[in-house]
Amino acid sequence: MTSSSSSGSTRRAVLKQCVASYKAVIGSFKSARTELSEDAMSANYDVMVAVDYIDSCESEMSLKNVQVLSMAERNNQYIICIVSIFLISALYI
C-alpha cells in the first residue's frame, strides 16, 4: 500500500494534507449541488475547482517523496469523475 523513503511523521503530515484536500473536494461538490438549479456556471466552476484540491494532495506527496499507491489511484479516479461531471453539466449550460 505505502512505499516511500520518507519518515512516518512526513507520511502522516502528507496524509493530513490530503485529508484536508478531500474535505475541500466534498465542500466543492456540496456547493455545486446547491448552486446547480440557480447558477449552473457557478456550479460548474465549483466542480472544476475540486481538481485543484486533488492536485494539491498529489503535489504534496510528490514534494515530500511520499508514495501512497491507493491514494494516487483514488486521486486519478476523482479526476475522471470530476471531468465526467464537468462534461455532463456542460450539456445543460
Automatic annotation (TrEMBL):
<dbReference type="InterPro" id="IPR035513">
    <property type="entry name" value="Invertase/methylesterase_inhib"/>
</dbReference>
<protein>
    <recommendedName>
        <fullName>Pectinesterase inhibitor domain-containing protein</fullName>
    </recommendedName>
</protein>
